[in-house]
Amino acid sequence: MMLVVVTFSTQAQEKKSKNAKYTIEVNGNCEMCKKRIEKAAFSVSGVKSADWHIDDHKLHLIINEEKCSLNDVQKAIAKVGHDTNDVKATQEDYDKLHGCCLYERK
C-alpha cells in the first residue's frame, strides 16, 4: 500500500509548469519580422509572453506548459517562415517573406 502512495505522489510532482521561461534563437531581420514572430508565438494557446529582439535574434517566452510546449511555439514560428534552432521553415514558407525579411539561412 505504501508503494502505491509513493508512486502517485511522485507522479503528482512531475506536473508541468504554468510559467516556464525559455529563450530561443529565431532568425529574422527587421520590425516586420518581430511582429510576425511574436504574432505566431501568441497564436499558440498557452503563450503568455513573447518578445523577440532584433539585435540578438532571441525570442524570450513565458508559456503555460500545461497548454502548449516549446516545440508547438517553434512549429508556429516556422510556419510563418522563420527558422529556430530546432524547427526549420519550409522553403515555401521562407519564400513568402517580404524581401527585407529574407535572412541568411544556415
From TrEMBL:
Matching entries from InterPro entries are given as: HMA_dom (IPR006121), HMA_dom_sf (IPR036163)
Q: Which Gene3D superfamilies match?
A: 3.30.70.100
The residue ranges of the HMA domain are 19-85
Q: Where are the transmembrane segments?
A: none
| The name this protein goes by in its record | Metal transporter
Organism (species): Flavobacterium buctense
